[in-house]
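Sample pair:
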Amino acid sequence: MFKEIKFTTPEEAVKVIKSGDHIHLSSVASAPQCLIKAMCERGRNNELHDVHIHHLHTEGPAPYAAPEFEGVFQLDSFFVGGNVRKVTQSGYADYIPIFLSETQRLYRSGVVPCNVAMIQVSVPDKHGYVSLGTSVDATLAAVECADTVIAVVNKHVPRSFGDAMIHSSKIDIFVQDDQPLEEAPFAEPDETEIKIGKLCAGLIEDGATLQMGIGAIPNAVLAQLDGHKNLGVHTEMFADGVLPLVEKGVINGEAKNIDKGKMVSTFLMGSQRVYDFIDDNPGVLMMDVGYTNDPYIIAKNDRVTAINSALQVDLTGQVCADSLGRKFYSGVGGQIDFIYGASLSKGGKAIIAMPSITKKGVSKISDALTEGAGVVTTRNHIHWFVTENGAVDLYGKSLQERARLIISVAHPSAQEALDKAAFERYGSHHHYIKSYMGK
């Protein structure tokens, strides 16, 4: 089967792109760098204008978003990654606010057109199937909807199962490039993050199904779970932190109601060890983001424990996770998908975990969110809130009780000012003072 594939050069492949086209790039570790380079070359030669580019966050360079390509390429990303943060904040690139679960729906419903999907796949097997490897997310939908699919066949792309497997007949143009996938360094937790990790781990029960992202806090949580039993994984992404728990048999998926015994994810970001782990591994299902992030599917497992982070939280429990004031910092991502899914799950726990102050000593808990800040998780969605100073459950609590609980886990240096703000907000009620005195 493999012999029938005809390869062309990246330069030749990107000639199908026309001015005004909408392009989807596969995301995270799987961004097809050789095609991106060739496309940008066409842009430099004034062969293209008004080309719209869409993707979730990508790792590695994103040259199409540079100011030099104004009027040539317009990036409208579904999530603001670190590599396009500055250009997005300065207006050269833009962002489409969207739940991660619905990114695939943008294509499937035709709200966002897809003329060309530029993806990266594994080497075909004897049946002609290739794998999308580390990123299924909205890429599968783009492949289904695109007029033209260009695939980079790369020996480093792991052969992952689930929705990742597609037949090579779905691909129009093949390019070969064996550039290793982008890796993400393991984030070592500091003292604060270790405290947060211990508190979160204390909330995780045996038989829980976990969702958590990448970074120091998830790593700190996972490091505390050695003594747990029969944990499962149904997440949007995982990284190196889960591997030791799989090796020790702590994560085995035995208590899951759906996809029993399998780890479910939609994209991955980690070291080569993670990519090797999913290669040819039937125990991992890389699924469409419309499946992994559907709150009603998430809720089918019991004891779903979702741990997500925040940039700022106010005294009513509103969570800002995508912007610093008016400046967009990341995106909505899957936070609401999983917070809602976990709270609908039998015995589930939705957790927002963050350090109480920034590295510069500014409290991340405030009386009101910074002007222009976006509410990602509303005050009606929040359940557990964890900082290094404690874990509090805000679900079903009144505004005054919430303020008291949130202040109790704020940084000591900020508590007095927050108390004063809460008193001014609720102070006309002697009730607040009374409950406050009795805290």
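The CA atoms of residues 183 and 271 lie 5 Å apart.
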